[in-house]
Amino acid sequence: SSIKIIEPFCGDGRLVCWLMLQARNNKQLKKYTWDIEIWDCDEQVLVKAKEDINAIAKRENLKFRLKVIKGDSFILAQSRFGQYHICLTNPPW
Predict the structure, then answer these.
(1) What's the pLDDT score for residue 24?
(2) Tens-digit pLDDT profile for residues 24-59
(3) How are strands ordered across the β-sheet holding 2-7?
(4) Please, are residues 88 and 12 in contact by the beta-carbon 8 Å criterion?
């Protein structure tokens, strides 16, 4: 019933946004609730990412929950291994 997505080094959130835009053409993906979690150590980019993700999810009519965490992704990840269906990140991570 839900897809758990993490972007641990989210920056402006563009990878989550691109994924949501791709989902608009996939009926299977649109039927799930998207549990999205974004992490970054820069509060300013988290604000932008949150705004953009909210706007696209609403525009594309996706059911979603968004959790925004300011922190060190390397520390946060240690206790969350295996909790997500999709991890979005740029290489080399």
Answers:
(1) 81
(2) 888 888 889 999 999 999 999 999 999 999 999 999
(3) 63-70, 33-40, 2-7, 86-87
(4) no
- Token representation of residue 69: 């965490």
Cβ neighbours of residue 89 closer than 8 Å, sequence gap 6 or more: 7, 8, 9, 15
Helices and strands (H and E) in the chain: how many: 4, 4
CB 39 within 8 A of CB 9: yes
The terminus-to-terminus CA distance of the chain in angstroms comes to 28
Nearest to 47 by CA among 68, 71, 62, 21: 68
pTM, two decimals, is: 0.89
